[in-house]
Amino acid sequence: VPIIGLATGDRGVISRVLPSKFGGYLTYAALAAGKESADGQPTLKDMLNVYNFRQVGRETQIFGIIGKPVYHSKGPVLYNKAFSSVGLDAVYVHYLVDDLPHFVDVYSTPDFAGFRSTSSLIAMFLLVGNCFL
User: Fold this and answer.
1) Which DSSP letter does residue 56 get?
2) CA dihedral 79, 84, 86, 92 (to 10 degrees)
3) N or C, where is the chain less crowded by C-beta within 10 Å?
């Protein structure tokens, strides 16, 4: 039975930006800020202009910024524009992370190419060790 899974809240943004990477065929976005039908729903403008949603496909490399808080980071705006300008098939997203060992366990796959950390996670990196090296 085909299923379309879209998560809500701050952790749900990636489920709306990345469906075509993982075989999904449908997602939706808010027409404008303040018009969201669910928490964590990006606007159509952000899907198209920040996340380059139309270019995301099965071969797209996924990069991101991890932290808690994380949504203050302008990384997706900067990196996605840079990726697009050099023709790199990649997308940069936010990851709200409060359990670093669990995050490393779940996202240590070839689909996820690399991550940066907010300063709020530096101490956690030191506690977990060199799990990203």
Assistant:
1) -
2) 30
3) N
**pLDDT tens, N- to C-terminus, the chain (133 residues):** 777 888 888 888 999 999 999 988 889 899 999 999 988 899 999 999 999 999 999 999 999 999 998 999 999 999 999 999 999 999 999 999 988 888 889 999 999 999 998 877 766 566 555 554 4
Distances (CA, A) of 133 to 37, 51, 92, 104, 105: 40, 27, 20, 12, 14
**Which token pair is 81?**
């524009």
pTM for this prediction:
0.86
User: How many whole angstroms separate alpha carbon 22 and alpha carbon 92?
Assistant: 16
Domain boundaries, the chain: 10-128
DSSP helix/strand/coil, 118: coil
- In angstroms and rounded to an integer, the radius of gyration of the C-alpha atoms of the chain is 15
Q: Which CATH architecture has domain 10-128?
A: 3-Layer(aba) Sandwich (3.40)
Structure tokens at 70: 């994380």
Residue written as token pair 């976005």 = 29
